[in-house]
Structures are given as structure tokens and as C-alpha cells.
Design a protein that fits this description.
alpha/beta; globular; nine-stranded mixed sheet; Rossmann fold; single chain; 9 strands; 9 helices
Length: 249
């Protein structure tokens, strides 16, 4: 999903439900890290954090006390509305949200200690521009092999047909070209159990896993067949594949 597609999709979804996934019932096995815990673990209390593609801001608001100050940016106006609403409700004074594209980070050169980016587009040169020497960049992204059985059932999907690992290798190459001295990567392929059919339906309607899900009547029959064929005592089974990159400038 490129930057404009990202903006259009998340503007639409943000206005529909504000990205409230709190009622989604899903159990996962095999998750090897929590992204924002990794961000904290590799940071200091005096650091300035920039979160790229911050969405509704819930994640950075929950970790704000671990930093001197936090900036969250997102290209989507719908997400910014949600983030600023969440900020108004939170007892947090060191967080600022700005609508901004990740392809032009409007911060001073060498001004940020830590940059994080979870499931959103980023540009290595822009990250390198604002990050201090010795600063840390962390990103978690969805691998091409994510929800692969679901994509196979529909015959389409996010990065469908692209070799697994393509995006990770592209990002690693771009980060090295941008001047990062140390670039490490990690992967996991977890098992997800969606407790109810409506949980899986919510996921498909509010994420880009299956593009334009529901536009065709046959989509719902395919989903019904998938649920019937993948029902287990723990729930409807599929997979969640992620990669993590940690780069030091």
C-alpha cells in the first residue's frame, strides 16, 4: 500500500469506527515480541521519540512516560482526529500529534533520538535526516506471508503473489543506503485464533488484508467456507507474520 492508498483507506476507516479494535476477540500463540515494549527497551528516559504512522495514538500515549517528549505523525486526517481526541482524554503532557506525510518529515536535522514505525510506510532517507547520530530506528511490518491461507482462499490480498521477505530485504537495503551503520532483522509467524466469525469479519472490513472485501457477493460465501474449513476448538485459525528491523544511525 503506497502513501496515497494508505491515506485514503485509513481516512475512511477512521471516520467509520475510530479504529476501535477493543472488542475484537482473538488469541495469538507464538508472538515473539511486543513492538512498543522493544521501543522502550532500546530507549532512555531523556530521549525524544518520533512515531511515524501513529494512527489513533493509543500506543505512544501508553508509553509516553518513558520519554522526555513524544511526537506522533500520520498522513490521515481521520487518524489525527482520533489521536487528538485520545490525547485530550489522556493525562499526558509530553505528547504532540501532527498530520504529516512520512515522505517529508518536518523536523530539524539530527533532532530525534528514537524513531518508531509500526505497520505504516516510511522512507529511510527521511528517517536518517531527522535521527541523531547513534540514534535508533525500529519498525515492525506485515510480512507477505501474513494471513496466507486467507489470501489463498480469496485468490487476492495484500502483497498476494509477492515472495515472502521481499519488503524486509527492500527496507534493509534502503536503510543501509541511507547510511545506517547497524541493521538487524527478526521474524515471527504466530498462530491467530479468532473466537467468533464476526471477529474475522471485522478484521476484513477494517484492514486492507483482502482489498475491497465485500464489494462482491461471493466474498461472503468464500469467508463462510473459510470459517467452516478452519474452525478449531480455540477459534478460527489463521497466521500472523511480522518482521522487526532495528537500525542504528
Amino acid at each position: 500500500m503506497n502513501e496515497l492508498e494508505y491515506k485514503d483507506f485509513y481516512d475512511k476507516v477512521g471516520k467509520i469506527n475510530g479504529w476501535d479494535f477493543s472488542k475484537l476477540q482473538v488469541t495469538s500463540e507464538g508472538i515473539e515480541w511486543n513492538f512498543y515494549e522493544e521501543v522502550i527497551r532500546r530507549s532512555k528516559g531523556t530521549d525524544v521519540l518520533l512515531d511515524v504512522g501513529t494512527g489513533g495514538g493509543e500506543n505512544v500515549l501508553s508509553i509516553a512516560s518513558s520519554f522526555h517528549s513524544v511526537f506522533g505523525i500520520d498522513i490521515s486526517s481521520g487518524m489525527m482526529e482520533t489521536a487528538k481526541s485520545n490525547l485530550n482524554k489522556a493525562n499526558v503532557s509530553n505528547v504532540e500529534f501532527k498530520q504529516m506525510s512520512s515522505d517529508h518529515l518536518e523536523f530539524s536535522f539530527d533532532s530525534i533520538d528514537v524513531v518508531s514505525c509500526c505497520h505504516a510506510p516510511f522512507f529511510s532517507n527521511e528517517v536518517a535526516k531527522v535521527l541523531k547520530n547513534g540514534g535508533t530506528f525500529l519498525t515492525q511490518q506485515v510480512s507477505e506471508g501474513d494471513k496466507l491461507d486467507l489470501k489463498n482462499a480469496f485468490g487476492r490480498g495484500q502483497a498476494f503473489g509477492v515472495a515472502d521477505g521481499t519488503l524486509k530485504e527492500t527496507y534493509i537495503r534502503e536503510l543501509k543506503e541511507a547510511g545506517f551503520q547497524s541493521v538487524e532483522s527478526f521474524d515471527y509467524n504466530a498462530v491467530d485464533y479468532y473466537h467468533r466469525p464476526e471477529d474475522l469479519l471485522f478484521l476484513l472490513k477494517h484492514t486492507p488484508i483482502i482489498p475491497h472485501f465485500g464489494y462482491e457477493d461471493k466474498d461472503f460465501q468464500i469467508l463462510n467456507d473459510f470459517i467452516e474449513n478452519n474452525q478449531t476448538p480455540k477459534g478460527i485459525i489463521t497466521n500472523s507474520k511480522r518482521f522487526l528491523i532495528i537500525a542504528i544511525k
